[in-house]
Amino acid sequence: MAEATLLRVENLSHRFGRFQVLQDVSVRVAPGRLTALIGPNGAGKTTFYKCVSGRLAPTGGRVWFDGREITGLPAHRVARLGLLRSFQI
C-alpha cells in the first residue's frame, strides 16, 4: 500500500537572474513523519522553504499540500491551509 503524502514537491526550480538556486527538486513528506532538509550554506534550503510557503514564486515545478496544488499561492493563503514557515529567534 502506498504511503499517504501531505507535502509533495515536483521539479521545483528557482533562479535569481542568471543564478540557478534550485533545479528540479522533488520531495514527498508523509503525514506524522519528521523530515529534515539539510545542506551547507548557500545550498538553497531557504529558497526552497520560501517557494513552498508562498513567500517566493518558483520559476518551475509544482507544489501540493494535503492534496491541493498551492504552486504560486501567496504566503497568507498557504498559511490558511496550515503550511507555515517559522523563523529562528
How many helical elements?
Answer: 2
Tell me roughly what share of residues is in helical segments: 10-25%
Counting DSSP E segments of at least 2 residues, the number of strands comes to 4
Distance between the termini: 41 Å
CATH superfamily: P-loop containing nucleotide triphosphate hydrolases
Q: According to CATH, what is the topology?
A: Rossmann fold
What does this structure look like?
17% of the residues lie in helices and 33% in strands. The protein has two helices and four strands; from the N terminus they run E-E-H-E-E-H. It has a four-stranded antiparallel beta sheet with strand order 2-1-3-4, covered by helices on one side.
Could you list some keywords that capture this structure?
single chain; 89 residues; 2 helices; 4-stranded antiparallel β-sheet; alpha+beta
